[in-house]
Amino acid sequence: MSQVSRRTCNLFRRSWKFPPHALRSERISSTTTAYLTRVRSGLSTRSGLSTRSGLSRTTDVPALTRSWLIMITMGLFVVNCAIAAEDHPGAATYRKHCAECHDQPDQPRVPPLAALQQMTARTLAASLAGVMAPQAAQVPRSELRDLIAYLAAPASASQEWIEALRCPAEARHIPRSATVRLASVGVDPGNQRALSAGQAGLTSNDLSHLELAWALGFPETSALRSSPVIIGDTLIYAINQAGVVIALDVRGPCVRWVYDAGMELRTSLTHGQISHDQAALLIADRAGQIHAIDPASGTVVWVAQGRHSSGAMITGAPMIHDGRIIIPVSGSGVGRAVNPRYECCVEHGAVVALEGATGEQLWTWHTMPDAIYTGKENRDGIKLRGPSGAPVWSTPTIDTKRRLVYVTTGQNTSLPATETSDAVIALSLDSGEQQWHFQALANDVWNMACRVPWERSGPNCPSPDDSVLKDFDFGASAILVTTKSGREMLLAGQKSGDVWGLDAASGELIWHNRFGLGTPLGGVHWGMAVSSGRLFVPINDPAFNASVAEPGMNAIDIETGRTLWRTPVAPDCTPERKARATGCERRYGLSAAPLAVADSVVAATIDGRVFVYDAVTGKVQFTYDTLRDFETVNGVPARGGAIDSHSIAAGAGMLFIGSGYGSFGQPPGNVLLAFRPAQADAK
User: Fold this and answer.
1) What is the mean pLDDT of the chain?
2) What angle do CA 487, 489, 495 make, to 5 degrees?
3) Beta strand 229-231 with 234-239: parallel, antiparallel or unpaired?
């Protein structure tokens, strides 16, 4: 298929909201028929034809004829696009190497074809060179080029909407005197994820009466994952897959400035003072580089390497205190184990400290020693290495009083197991030396070769005799709190559904609570929030593998660990929603980190719904369904999807939601939504 015809077909698909997977020959029969039925209904209505009662009295016969001709032409165009797409040389490569996973809606960790087709060639190439490298290694290089060309969204002038939405020349800087309202994903160094009404510019009453102020669509995007920084009336937001950071005056909105990182970005933004006279925005890219950006102008201050090895990634946001930048490194190699010929496994997590003024590395703490050959082989006779894993997925927590850094870790990915996996660990801010650790689950060795039941697993999955095989890591930051009695504690939530209350000074266990039995993508996934002595615990629990699912929002007394209230969330599988969210009856829990605002808690589901809860009672105050198409202020076609990771933020009198997260079998999307108090209620 020529590039011109492919671009034309994609333009047609987007303009008429035709599902991407339908433009494949094996699916034309059912999908195209259903779609053309909808088109016929719409055209018939516009031409005066009643689909229930035949010809109406006002039928315009010439208009009716034109409508049917349009429908037939569209049908032929769809078929031609589908046939042409299947003739693309990359189509055969996709079917041979990719379809087995990406065409399966029940694969929880694999983005569907529809999500892949919204990615740029740059994003796809980066994924194939990074997390998907083991799979890409099995494909000839010439076929990889064809595969990317087949899958990638057509190249577009993706920056044109930015230029069209620019603020007036005199308003393209952020005043240095403007108040920082949201500095990091955790809000404060203790990662409490809580904003007062004054900080947010929103009361609980406002949050119970919201309306959509505007929607912004991002081209060639299938997932939004990052928390912004808010300074004055400016929202600074990372469009991760596009590799750009934009500063939006939310009152327009209009674009003050844009920073192009040159590659895909991975983390949320953090604002802080990197030297006595320089504030900066910090963010990490796919290559593990930390970008320090001037918040006033969007110009680069410096770019420095933030990881300890070339195979590692940075997922949690950098944190900064006293001119020292703390970087969590999520090296695990969890995906490489899928390749049965891979000598599993070598990567491990780390924490790296940088000098704020220059980006120079100061110290590195490793979750374990480098892997070595263990003398054992997998069942295919391939040598095995270890230990590995214990990645640090989450944003570090800073104890400014004790000058400690608290991090949480994931599971091991190969034997032998270490004491630092599935753990909460305290490090010296000054030296990186480990002060104490608390291991929540021992001997949890798991990688993506593992399946349920274990007999279906690949050769690099450990035996049940050697591992608990749970994948119950910590993806959420630990939260530093002070109770009413004055005790300083750390609160940590795990994918198992366990919530732990620990002494901040020693790591000693104070209390423990649990919700459900957890799943590899369940329990507490990306975060929790604290306000007024209450810990708000979202539970995801996508229901698969016969797990006991308890998705919903919960509140715990931080002093005792006692459950205060529980508000379950139920699936919403109307036919229209089910068409957009495959498996909605199983995937509908709360995975994204919630945000406490005033006396309310904002949370969202992986099937695209926003919930505002009363912090005291757990009663639902407001809901909004984002799983739909949106008219955007920048003219980019946009649709909502799963809300996940760190996609909830507030400030400048608005609530911001990034809708769309095309991973883990969840619906992709590409829209940033801004909500304000309903105008009728604001008077």
Assistant:
1) 86
2) 155
3) antiparallel
Alpha-carbon gap, residue 334 to 467, rounded angstroms: 15
Phi, psi of 52 (to 5 degrees): -95, -35
The DSSP result for 20-32, as a single string, is: GGGSSGGGIIIII
Asked whether the whole model's pTM tops 0.85, one would answer no
* DSSP letter assigned to residue 265: B
What one-character-per-residue DSSP string does 457-479 give? Answer: S-TTSPPTTT---------SPPE
The span from the CA of 247 to the CA of 236, in Å, is 4
Mean pLDDT of 447-454: 92
Burial of 460 (0-12, 13-18, 19+ CB in 10 A): buried
650, 202 contact by CB (below 8 A): yes
**Phi then psi dihedrals of residue 47, to 5 deg:** -95, 0
Instruction: Please name the residue that has the structure tokens 């059912």.
Output: 30
Non-local CB neighbours of 295 within 8 Å, separated by 6+ positions: 174, 229, 231, 236, 247, 271, 279, 280, 281
How many C-beta atoms lie closer than 10 Å to residue 138's C-beta? 10
- What ranges in 540-646 are assigned the alpha helix state H? 575-580
Residue 468 clears pLDDT 70, i.e. is over it: yes
- Is the Cβ–Cβ distance between 623 and 210 less than 8 Å? no
Is residue 148 within 8 A of residue 88, CB to CB? The reply is no
- Contact yes or no for 381/340 (Cβ under 8 A): no
Q: Are 575 and 184 in contact (CB under 8 A)?
A: no
Cα separation, 467 vs 457, whole angstroms: 14
Give the integer Cα–Cα distance in Å for 124 and 147: 9
* AA letter at 578: K
On the question of a cis peptide bond just before residue 168, with omega within 30 degrees of 0, the verdict is no
Phi/psi at 72 (5° precision): -65, -45
